[in-house]
Amino acid sequence: METLIQQLINGLVIGSVYALIALGYTMVYGILGLINFAHGDVLMVGALTALQTMMFLMGVAPGMSPVYMLTIALMVAIPVCITLGFLMERLAYRRLRNAPRLAPLITAIGMSFLLQTVAMILWGRNYHTFPQLISTTPMQPIEGVFITPVQVIIIAASAAIMIGLSLLVTRTRIGRAMRATAENHRVASLMGVDTNAVIAFTFVVGAALAAVAGVMYASNYGIAHYGMGFMPGLKAFTAAVLGGIGNLGGAMLGGIMLGLVESFGAGYIEHLTFGFLNSSYQDIFAFIILGLVLIFKPTGLLGERVSDRA
Amino acid sequence: MNELVSAVPWLGKRNPMAARWLIIILALAAPIIAWQFGRSWVRILDFALLYMMLALGLNLVVGFAGLLDLGYIAFYAVGAYTFAFLASPHFDVHLPFWIVLPLGAAFAALAGIMLGFPVLRLRGDYLAIVTLGFGEIIRIFMLNLNYPVNITNGPQGINMIDPINLFGWDLSRNLQVTETFSINSLFLYYYFFLLCVAGSILFIQRLQISRVGRAWAAMRDDELAAKAIGINTRNMKLLAFSLGATFGGVAGALFGAFQGFVSPESFSLMESIAVLTMVVFGGMGNIAGAIVGAFVLALLPEILRDVAVPLQQTLFGTVILDPEVLRMLLLSLAMILMMLLRPSGMIPARARYAHAENMKREGAQ
Fold first, then answer.
1. Which residues of A touch B126 (CB under 8 A)?
2. What is the pTM of this model?
3. CATH of the domain at A25
4. Any stretches that span the bilayer, and where are they (chain B) (predicted)?
5. Is A120 in contact with B325 (Cβ distance < 8 A)?
């Protein structure tokens, strides 16, 4: 029973991070029909920028309170990622909006590897330890079940961000413009929506979410390196597809479900396969889910779009 | 060959015959020229030929059939590991080359069909991600299948794979022609690989103008229309996947035998992307493009390695960008810039069956 609750908590923590990343994928896909492959790498840039800032702050003001330090790090990481997202859209994707369907995707893949390479040049190939500013001493709310303050904050913060984003999309003017653009570019622009600005805004919001998710992901695992964005990016994409790509609620649901499946899967795979496979196979769950969803329910759990759209 | 001459920039159009001979002479003389710069360059040429086979195979899938496959290296891995299992001390099995090579190809083709079935209904971007996932799954299995039963020997990989042995003629030994003159084994491999590449080109060329090739082109340009005129798109997609995979498998088997060692590291996603970049760079849907792309992008990083590292040392005193970083930088920039500036590649595919007004659109694919 304790293991079950423990896996549930672990799954919720990692699932909320996936959900935040998935939101970025799903918003861009909803509006442009583009899988922004480089989204995971924006996360990596966010985490490494935050790391750099913290290192700097620790050198300048060693006695600073961890909360302030983390806040400042985020305040630096978010604008950096926003700029990055904006530039990617402006310089590459916008020019390819009317190109044949494979072109933007191939560009996005190239972008992802470009970001990784640049990060490799700037930060080296090594794994960096990510300073764990918030206490990681586990608490025991129930006997035998551990949860760290970092994990509590991750869950709370992602819930708050998701609520905020939902309000942004459903209640504000720009949110309405976003929905209109996703529905139909041309009609939206005829109605006076500046679709270019809306698309740029979408990339910016997605990048900001990725920056936050990057800091969370790195804090949770305590490490950061140039290739760290790839796997969570891919998994978040799976989460977005699972929930129904283009659908915000779906991305959140999909992220949390994927986190749970992964955590339970990793915990029980050894029993299920009689010791043949162990938890090092954790990463294949996402791909298996992705395959199954696309084969049996390509619209995802909450989505309406058909998979044939390319 | 007619296709290939378009790779020669100026001569190709004016005098195809001369261009053809130029290519043949260059292909035959390349290792001798490379030898002047050192042994390692012949080795690099050997690898370039393997990349050509991979690019040709991926071009079948991406260029001809229009299915973006990001896990192509998995088939290369299947071929290489099949060879390693069946011809190395790892399981103490040493089957002859002519049995292992077709087996490697067959297993890769089987893997291609296995991948093909579930993804039949997917298109474009979804297909890309699922194939990528497939590639990663294969890699994860290669990394971890050393426990509880040691099958792949995990991250260490498999060593001491038997060399290519053509009817008792061991390619890994220098060929002693006379007492004083011998041909280095790297040359033997080169010419053997060249033969394989030439065979592949011939096969693919015939395939492209066959019923199958035309069906692929139709499917790539408009799947619905292709279905409407009676093309069985399901079978055609499976055929594209399995044939493409076969090339990957053969190349993989040759790679395993040539290198004598396989490990999961050689089959990372980066390699899939590298092969894709070769196809994109040269021009999708075009044999000459795949060949040129593979040749340029296999050689360029090595040339950079030789030029850029000493250059950095003299300029900055230290090596800021090591060769591996340079290679990644080059590949990713090549991919982005090609898509932005010249989406049809260095050598745009001729639209064989399109009307003149459709040529532009076809070329842009």
1. 241, 294, 298, 307, 310
2. 0.88
3. 1.10.3470
4. 18-37, 49-75, 95-119, 126-145, 187-204, 238-261, 273-304
5. yes
Cα separation of B82 and A92, whole Å?
41
Is A309 within a domain?
A: no
The answer to which of A56-65, A120-129, A179-188, A276-285 has the lowest mean pLDDT is A276-285
Q: In whole angstroms, what is the distance from residue B68 CA to residue B93 CA?
A: 36
- Three-state SS for B219? helix
Considering only CB atoms, A110 lies closest to which of B132, B143, B336, namely: B336
- CB-CB neighbors (< 8 A) of A109 in chain B: 70, 128, 273, 276, 335
**Mean pLDDT of chain B, nearest integer:** 85
Whether the predicted pLDDT of A63 surpasses 90: no
Where do the domains of chain B lie? 4-364
**What's the CATH number for B4-364?**
1.10.3470
CA–centroid distance for A220 within its chain: 14
Give the residue on B whose Cα is nearest the Cα of A125: B325
Interface-testing mutation among A237, A273, A281, A287, with chain B (most B C-beta atoms within 10 A): A287
**CB-CB neighbors (< 8 A) of A232 in chain B:** none
Give the structural domain span for A15: 2-131+142-296
A72 vs chain B: nearest CA distance in angstroms? 30
Distance between CA atoms of B354 and B362, rounded to whole angstroms? Answer: 8
Give yes or no for residue B68 having a pLDDT over 80.
yes
Reported as a pLDDT band with limits 50, 70 and 90, residue B356 is very low
Say how far apart CA A189 and CA A186 lie, in whole Å. Answer: 5
ipTM of the complex: 0.84
